[in-house]
Amino acid sequence: MAEFKIKKGFDIKVLGKPNPEIEEYAKPQLFAVYPNEFEGLKPRLKVAAGDRVKRGDILFENKKNEKMLFRSPCSGTIKAINLGARRAPIEILIEAGAQEESVTFETYTKDSVAALSREQMVDHLLNTGLWPLIKQRPFAKIANPETTPKAVFVNAASSAPFQADFSAILKGDEAAFETGLAALARLTDGKVHLCKSAGSDIPDFAGAVSHTFSGPYPSGNTSVHINRVSPIQPNDTVYTLPAQDVILVGKLLLTGELPRTKVIALGGPGIKEANRKHYRVALGASLTKLFSEALETDTKQRVISGHILWGDIVTAETCVRYYGSEFFALEEDRSRHLMGWTMPGLLQYSSHRVNLSTLLCKSKKWKLGTSLNGSHRAMVVTGWMDRHQPLNILTDFLVRSALAHDTDEMIQLGILETTPEDFALASFVDPHKTDVCKIIKQGLDEIEEEGI
Amino acid sequence: MKFLFDFMDKNIAPLFEKGGKLERLYPLFEAGDTFTRTPAEVTPSSPHVRDSIDQKRLMVFVVYALLPCLFFGMWNAGHLFNINNNVENATSLTDMLRGATMVLPIVMVSYMVGGVWDLLFALVRRHEINEGFLVTGMLFPLVLPPTLPLWQVAIGISFGIIIGKEIFGGVGYNILNPALTGRAFLFFAYPAQISGDKVWIGSAKTPLDNNFLGTVAENVDGVTAATPLAVAAAAEQGSSAIAALGEAGFTLWNMTVGTISGCIGSTSVIAILIGMVFLLITGIASWRVMLSGIIGVVAIGALFNALPAETFSAFSQLPFYYHLVMGGFLFGIVFMATDPVSCAATNTGKWIYGFLIGGLTVVIRVANPAYPEGAMLAILFMNVMAPLVDHFVVQSHIKKRTAYARALNHA
Fold this sequence. Notes:
The complex is a heterodimer of chains A (452) and B (411).
Chain A: E1 2-5, E2 19-24, E3 30-33, E4 43-45, E5 52-53, E6 58-62, E7 69-71, E8 76-83, E9 89-96, H1 110-114, H2 118-128, E10 135-137, E11 141-142, E12 151-155, H3 166-170, H4 174-187, E13 191-197, E14 209-214, H5 222-229, E15 238-242, H6 243-255, E16 261-267, E17 277-282, H7 288-294, E18 301-306, E19 311-314, E20 326-331, H8 356-360, H9 395-403, H10 407-412, H11 424-429, H12 436-450
Parallel strand pairs in A: 1-14, 2-17, 12-13, 12-15, 13-14, 16-20
Antiparallel strand pairs in A: 3-9, 4-6, 5-8, 6-7, 8-9, 10-11, 10-15, 16-17, 18-19, 18-20
Helix pairs in contact in A: 4-6, 9-12
Chain B: H1 2-16, H2 26-36, H3 55-84, E1 87-88, H4 92-125, H5 132-142, H6 150-162, H7 178-189, H8 191-194, E2 215-216, H9 228-234, H10 241-247, H11 252-257, H12 269-282, H13 287-306, H14 320-325, H15 329-336, H16 347-367, H17 375-409
Antiparallel strand pairs in B: 1-2
């Protein structure tokens, strides 16, 4: 049990915080699985359009590791398989049937889980399709089942606008969570770390070491947790997963069936005030109806699977995704302002002191849009990218070495401790509109390709 | 207004966009278009919001910070002209107007010639025009004497922009501060027009230029006025530099207010401080560089004061605080040394970089008989050294972070 105060960081003051109440969202007819959510995965389809599937039937497998399976979240008929570039499947649509049939797996109790070997646990998770929930560092990709990590980090913290509130999600599912933690303990020789935000109402569990993190964003990021508790050195591996996914693992083990639901948080200025809350939704379920009610209609909205700083752009017809517990909507802002470069800046949001609003509107919550607020310029090292970086990384130099494809220096400067998400604030504050996250992503990809 | 913008978007913009007839001139269109209105671009991916600051605002704010220096410099140039040429009925207004006729052409030539070079390189390289030239174009005239021939201004800014910036790839890639590079070039190429005691105050032409700006009662042949630095450097061994300054009419007070001969923008400590406060409040320039630079002057200046009087010239015995108000040091450390491109990038590096600029300025002034102005050379030298300073800071950072990771892993 340790407490960590994160001093460097920045909270973006955006409107639309979801309140912690959880509403049950009625199960729709349409479900979907998105194989392109699994980065770098080469799927081999096991079904075709028109096939009937049970809940838990295999949809596709990993070509590179055939033990890694991906299963159907509902029972019904495959409506369509949509292909993307190079004919890779990107969307499998399933029409729910009237009668639900489920594939069942072995059931366990919390104690019988503890008696399993690492190999049995890994095989069970791979076989049931829940293994991909576990990611590994470095590179933030699906964990390699072969390497035993030095630790597992469970992230129950939230600091970005707006992450789901785990203390609300946990209520009623404590037993499943504990079983999940016990399962994770089988995967590592080291410890399972449970990282929470200060002030959140989450009890301690015997199966994990609890840590509390306070401070502004990114105090809830897994990279920060790992850096403070057990920093990654070259050749280290760490497994990570969000706390809600531990509940899913626990439910699978306890019930012997695939978990049915998870909770998502819906927030942001593009969501109507009445709809800014948490919803309990079926895994893979279509959210079309929810978004058609919840989205503001006065302007064009961008829907993000994730939060304002980190997430994928999706359509309002999206289904619940395999990863992530939050959706965010904000205005697609293409408006143009007269002489923006010299106006006093009372109506524009900035983290810098060049706008009057920074000095005068300290407590205001802003209705932010997606405008780039400027145009791309050559990168100049101002030191601002590093201002909100709690990871003790010389951000500017790391970016520079990534641009120079200097893998040795990137590793020395600590790129292995990071994911592109850790540079969201650096991208945000940069006056030259440099896409820092993308540069870091390329750097990580290069290192992965060349080997450490 | 809206009608005009709609017309632009519909009829003018497609000409410059890809496939349009004037595609090659896109940078020019982009500059004008985003000058009038913020661009309509949206974030391509995460993070989905961006700060409202951009390069334009950043650079324009530096220009704002320079305005007090510009206006004071204009007034001062006219004021000194009127006094030294015995102009009758001179008022503050005619001082200002007279100064404007001397200074504004220099500023305009600097912007026009510099702007043309920037545009040319942007067109050839097919990238947008960087707003950095707004600052360079203003900084450069402010470190020139008000009497500099305009053709030299044009040559100086050309050298600064091309050799100091563009051959490295443009803003963001340059090693030296472009404005200072241009000045250093003029300093060594045309010393007669930028140093000595004849260049700081304009002299009335013959026949007398009597007009609404005032009447020249008696034509003076070649107004001479030395700068404080030259006076202090010329003080004889064993004499008092303060006394020498006093004899030449320089006191701590008038050097602070700035009613003395010198470069256009750098004589008034008060005007520079106003700009400095603006830069610090808006957080644009690095306070670390400014503070450590001043500490450097104080420390090395005090060190010279403590040495026995006979070791160096009388200049070395001048109390250290005089160095802060004399010459171009303060202007240099506030506006030139803080240029984020040529300055050290790490925080520790900034402390070292600033301190050495301050220290070197005093060393060059006191221990080097050839050039009384040390700040320009000190800043250029440290511009060159900044990557080396950063290199050592980064190496020590890597050592520290490795040790931190090891310690926590073996705990």
